[in-house]
Amino acid sequence: MKRRELFQTMATATAGAALLGRDGLAAPRHRAEGHGTTAFSTQVRRLQLRHTWTTTMSSSAYRDTLHAQFTRDGITGYGEGAGIVRYQQNALGGQKALEALQSVITSADPWRFEKFLADLDRRLPGQRAALAAVDLALLDWICKKLGVPIYRFFGLDPADAAITNMSIGIDTPEITKQKVREAEDFPFLKVKVGLASDEATIDAVRSVTKKPLRVDANEGWTSKEEAVRKINWLESQGVQFIEQPLPAHMIEEARWVRARVHMPIFADEACHSAEDIPKLRDAFDGVVIKLDKSGGLLEAHRQILVAKALGMKTMLGCMVSSSCTITAAAHLSPLVDYADLDGNLLISNDPFVGVKVDKGKLILPTTPGLGLRLTKA
Ligand code: MG
């Protein structure tokens, strides 16, 4: 039997805009249903934030993420991608991009996922978060078929899973203090800075806790002199390392800053692909890897290995996401030095139960695939 016949599918697409219902769930669009063969569908879910989330980039009370389901042989793999505003991505745009590739996805041989995902990456320019939704759904399905958790697929020891910090978004001093108190179980905090209020923010955090801090400036400082001044001040405040003090394109300036401070500097917005990492080697001490930036687990795994081979530190980060993306990233966390995998803890209507956290330590599910369980959220 030819492969095309084997994977025969019957595609049906729901017409019309995917308006969000009261439950925050858009009507499934882009659905392909086969005769017990392959089905692929996407949904946009509205994730409600516990606190309004503010960084130098944006401020919002909710985030919409794109969810994907890949079903074949009675097994469903789940995936998610959180479009990144900085790269002009959003959930509906990602959904539309996948809709255009419906037949490509449903007719692919899922076991040749390396080649298939590389091809999909070429077909999805500027849509790495949507690619991540497919990559996660496919690898969840593959590992369920194999009967192994994702960490075992990559040959990792779940006992080595990282300790995640808890993130504190930009807010008033009073709410910042409240967030720090709510994060008392976590041994490390990551504080968003990059605005004129930086000193007031750190003062508010320090009035409540002496814990080691990490900070993320999200490209918020515009001159190398300002970056050096603020980093040296942050060092006196017990900060361990900083993410992306300057805009992503200022690689030379980052090198200049690095030569003048003791604190390790991580590249986040400056690092998207494994090919970016060698260029960052002298300007940064480490890189922040996110599934939504990389396009999923396969490329994130590649980036971690490249960074390590170049002697750089690695940190797994995340966007505001459900436990789908966060659990996927947590499965790779035994490989990295640091983890910032708290995006699911910032929301109040998580549609999944997956990775757990015990005093910051990530506890990986041991059931096959991502190990997700659906909730009623
Ligand atoms: Mg960052």
Describe this structure as you would to a colleague:
- The structure is a single chain.
- The protein has helices at 3-6, 91-99, 102-107, 113-123, 128-146, 150-153, 173-182, 198-206, 224-235, 251-258, 277-280, 291-294, 297-309, 323-332, and strands at 9-12, 29-34, 38-54, 59-72, 75-81, 166-168, 189-192, 213-216, 239-243, 265-267, 286-289, 313-316, 338-339, 352-353, 356-358, 361-363, 373-374.
- The chain is α/β, with parallel strands linked by helices.
- The protein has two domains: 38-147, Enolase-like, domain 1 (2-Layer Sandwich), CATH 3.30.390; 152-374, Alpha-Beta Barrel (TIM Barrel).
- The strands form four sheets. It has an eight-stranded parallel beta sheet.
- The chain is globular and about 60 Å long.
- Residues 1-24 and 26-35 have low confidence and may be disordered.
- Magnesium ion is lined by residues 216, 218, 243-244, 268, 288, 317.
In short:
Helices cover 33% and strands 23% of the residues. It is an alpha/beta fold and 377 residues long.
